[in-house]
Amino acid sequence: MRLRTHFGLGYRIVAGYALLLLLMAVVGFFGLQGVSGVNSELNLMLDQEIPRLLHIERLNGAIERFSVALRGYLFMGDPKLREALTAADAEIREQFAALCGEGPAPESSGSSAAGPAPAVAQVPDEGDKEVQRIRDAWEQCRTSVFGYLDSGQRGEVMLYMTDQGDAVIEQIRTDLAAMLAALRDSTAQAGEAAKATVSGVWTRTLGTLGISVALGIILAISLSASIVRPTGALARVAQEVASGRLQVKVPGTERRDEVGATARAFAEMVGSLRTVVQEISGHAKQVASTGHELAASADEAATATEQVAKTI
Length: 312
What we know:
84% of the residues lie in helices and 0% in strands. The chain is mainly α. The chain has helices at 2-76, 79-99, 129-150, 154-242, 258-311.
């Protein structure tokens, strides 16, 4: 009982703050969960989709430069065009290696003494067989082209390109365009998923925040009703006692908290004051009665003295 009396209001206040902290923790949990979901979606885009988009776009550009440099070199035989052709080929092989997760590809020397450029070691990727298929087609095409070029057979290169090479390169560019479109769609879907996750986070967070605010208001009203109202009643009773009205009933004595303990102590104080006042009133009546008796004795003594005086 003493523990309940001593820690009643303190327990309510601590429990209220603990409830608010719990709700804040719930809000934080939902926020972190949503951030984690958005982060996973963004990481998927940043770590996989966007780099693949960049590699495919660079690959398309390198294949375009390869085609232009090859046609120019076949018609004009300019060594600078051969250098541009070799650079474009190195870029293409590097982008294919990056798409297949192999790291930088070795550069093709393009020299006539080396013969046909060796194909890059193919590492099949179970996750992207389409890229490997396109890469195989490209390796066959560029091996034939550089094989003829290194042998000085430019006419054979022209025949090969007219017969097969142009169709192979065009098909490769078509396949890459389809892959690029699919990746863009996938990136757009990932963005929409991230937006949906953010919307869900906002909804859960606002809902939990609304519940927290409502519970906080209820808690504040409850604490106000538990403390302010009985304290105000005790203040009014104290004013009445100060005015001399001791026959008042102290409210809140039945409560089992600090306010109830204060009310009971105040009631005991008022009762003690009432007893003291009653005792003082009784003593005052006794003093008044004794005064009347003394006055009567004085009157009798005065009468006796007057008679003695007359007798003398």
